[in-house]
Amino acid sequence: MRYGVFYSPAAQREIVKLSQRRERRRILDAIDRLSREPRLPGSRKLTNSPLWRIRIADHRVIYSIDDDGAIVVVLRIAHRTRVYEVDLADLQRRAAKAIRRERLSEEG
Description:
Blueprint: E1 4-7, H1 9-17, H2 21-36, E2 44-45, E3 52-56, E4 59-66, E5 71-79, H3 88-107
């Protein structure tokens, strides 16, 4: 089964900010692999959270998995020293809201 991959607005901004093309390509390739297997070897579930993370060199990708809807939501992409500085639960709530809006617009 293939999962749909959605990016939170924050994750979209962070992808654009990545300065090195090779770095950006590696991260986007890893995210593409999430569409085929959201629990990649090396991915880890965050402690006391429904969120997951993958490590790509010095960067981390924080994401959530909705198995029922076959959706992966990329919430945050950042350097390992800054990735956990935000309220990830708040990011997850906002991303869920955006996905619901997108689904409604597709159905309507």
